[in-house]
Predict the 3D structure of the following.
Amino acid sequence: MDVIRVLQLLTSTAPGGGPRQVFHLVRHLPADEFRVSVAGPWDQRFAADLRTLGIELAEVAVDSLRAFPMTLRAVERLIHDTRADLVHTHGKGAGLYGRLAAWLVGVPSVHTFHGIHYESYSRAGRYLYLALERWLAGITHTVINVSTTQDAEALRLRVARPGRSVVVVNGIDVGELDARPRSDRASLGLGDDEQVIGCVARFDPIKKHEVLVKALATVVKRHPKAVLLLVGEGPQKAEIARLASQLEVRVVSPGAIGSEANAYSSCNLYVTASSKEGLPLAPLEAMASWRAVIATKVPGHQDVVDDGKTGLLVPRDDPEAMAAAIGSLLDDRSRSERMGQAGRERVLREFTVKSMVDNTAEVYRAAAAARTASPRG
């Protein structure tokens, strides 16, 4: 059997869904069939994680257009140096440079959308972004969407082509999650008697942490021991801290904990107010940790949370609806525990890392088989 060489190219290697997915692929793809190289902007933690698997992170900044020709040439060299049979890209910058370089070199490309985010752009920016993605779709062997709702959106926007788009839902390694030591509440600055409402996500505008803080201001009126645990880093961290101070609510932000511990074990409930997602890993990890999940009713979340069974879905940008959902589960511990159990069972049934890896491997096999000689090569 010929080995298939895959170059994974990421726009960001900071903690998040894309890097986590790539790490799982590198770790679990059959070693006798695949050789994987990984490239992207430098991140010390991600580089250290890869090193435990015997892989060095090749540093290339694909998150900027400032040095377009040089970056494109650098990615082309990576493809040659790694002798890649195909390139798998993650994120906008990697999707541009990686797919264009692969097309120029003459190897197939696979692109994963970890959410299709363009709504915040100007009207001209949205037009240019969609026009570029539609052109890139034409030179992409397969577009991977991480949820059925995202797949429908990608086809509607024509950033993926019928017959060249597949759904590979994100999966988590439940065994690895179970093996993590449980976070000690004291180490996070939490009290044993507090009702902890947790969220693991970067402090980014799309995550809408301000909705959670405003919801907490309502929840504490009936549940004075309620506290919001926000795990992560990001540009809005100071802004969220100021809002919490203004509303006089307790928000604990210990930073990015990473994969060394299970922060979900310190939470009574898991909440997320994101305005849009691809298919988020943190709610899946919370469900696998027997926690009920309250999430906004948006693409991505709707693919994860079975409303009324594994958690509750609430309207986006609605702190009062979020507060009502939180209060209802804090008031009914047995219901919350039943949802947590159902969530655990759903993850084991539908969102395993094995399924994700097996389905991605099938995409790789098809792309490698379709490789043809190119005059650009």
User: Anything to note?
Assistant: The first helix runs from residue 17 to 28.
